Fold this protein.
Amino acid sequence: MVLVYIDHQDNQIKKSSLEAVTYGVALAKQLGTEAHGLLLGTVNDDPSALGAYELKNIYQINDAALSSFDAQVFVKTIAAAATKVGATTLVFSHNQTGKAVCAGVSALLKAGLVTGAIELPKTDAGFVVKKSVFSGKAFANVSIQTAIKIISLSPNSFRTTGGAATMASIIPLDIPVSAGHVKITAVNKTSGEISLTEADIVVSGGRGLKGPENWGILLDLAKELGAATACSRPVGDAHWRPHHEHVGQTGVQVAPNLYIAIGISGAIQHLAGVNRSKTIVVINKDPEAPFFKAADYGIVGDAFEVLPKLTDAIKKMKASA
Amino acid sequence: MKILVCISKTPDTTAKIAFANGGKKFEEAGVQWIINPYDEWYSLVRAIELKEKDPATIIHLVTVGGADAEPIIRKALALGGDEAIRINTDSSDSYYIAAQIAEVANTEKYDLVFTGKETIDYNGASIGGMIAALIDAPYMSLATSFLMEGSTATITREIEGGEEVVTVNTPVVVSCQKGVAEQRIPNMRGIMAARTKPLKVLEPAAADSLTSIESFELPAPKAGVKLVSPDNVEELVRLLHDEAKAI
């Protein structure tokens, strides 16, 4: 039985978690078994609506100790729940929560773990999961040899479906929840920003933009496209943009539908962080910029001229659509 | 206070990634090895800063690897730390590696165990979480700031779309990333001192491997870039809409 961890924040189920649900259901079909969800705490919307993704049961654990996140508590609770319902495969999203809990669950259950899976496993002989390694420069096929298997799915690797006319059954699970040791004292959200790892479109700027005061034209384009914004490492290091926008081998790795790189030369470390993007557009003044070799579309031109024109053209396209 | 810093050996960020034996093995010829950047720049440097503030602090470094990991662990000792432990075994299985480190942690009873948020080779992001579960300590993933006051740690950690600030008493396992500290360059005094710092080699404890790497692949090469004139951005918009279906 496949058990998918339903991850939520501010009582909303995350998009990356819906991808994990879609993945878990597809995996259950492949294995000829059922897919269920595991929900810790509560969400605003009726969780039985997850039946639209063909989840059968949602096992829900409600305990005051789960209202704020403590990895140690969540790990123990998830492991106990997985054992109680007899899960043979657990699916998480490889998002911030997944990174905090799935390794601990793996250790407690002694269940083989592959983090950052990018497609469904091969299960005809054994159980082999493909994941991105060397920070996006290569893939590894990893075999899980234990009876219970755990996969965390790389965000933006598996499109959500949904739309089935079924409802999931909510089944409360009675699992004792231990008290935590962690106290959350503040939460700082960058409001209104689109999450970089979940974004469909990412607009990213490099040193070619010459200074933080020039980011306006990039932000205009991002706004028009509903895109998240990112930057190269030198830009992050120079504090032109916040650290969390740095994509690349030692920053965030992204895999959006569309990645637009502006004034970024395309160092190997940067390419590693973005090369799983479906479509890459490069805008750079230098025709020799190595990024063009990794791009699908390119414009050799001055970003300060091209960007406002591009934003306008997109605006016009949207108006005529 | 006693701190354990986990150190991993990874290929340099500029290393060309290639595979031998029909994709079964990482091609090590010509590869420069470095301390995993997250281990070096953030967790090790932060541990050193804590010792600079409180000289009674003891820092142990641990690595799981063969004798070829010793230059890396010496390089780490050149930055700082009192002694190093190498657990003499090679593995790519996170659980096996975490079980080795947990064994050391259970014997030595550290107040803090630091890891990088992930290694830049296998990108598992799992060793810290596994150690925490194995020694039953709280786990703080993706820390961007780490402060210590008595036996209470105040940690800022990344969450979806922002950060949260949490307090927790030691012992605690922390995975560190950008923000926790700034990269340092080892100085000559550190390099000389590292030569005589103790490096203990332990044989591995009995533990299971739960996974194994079957093969590696390189991404398919791109078909080639389609260039559009800067005077015809409408054409780019059309291609992105009609051909790539990306907007």
In short: The CA atoms of residues 22 and 116 of chain A lie 15 Å apart. Chain A touches chain B through 99 residues (CB under 8 Å).
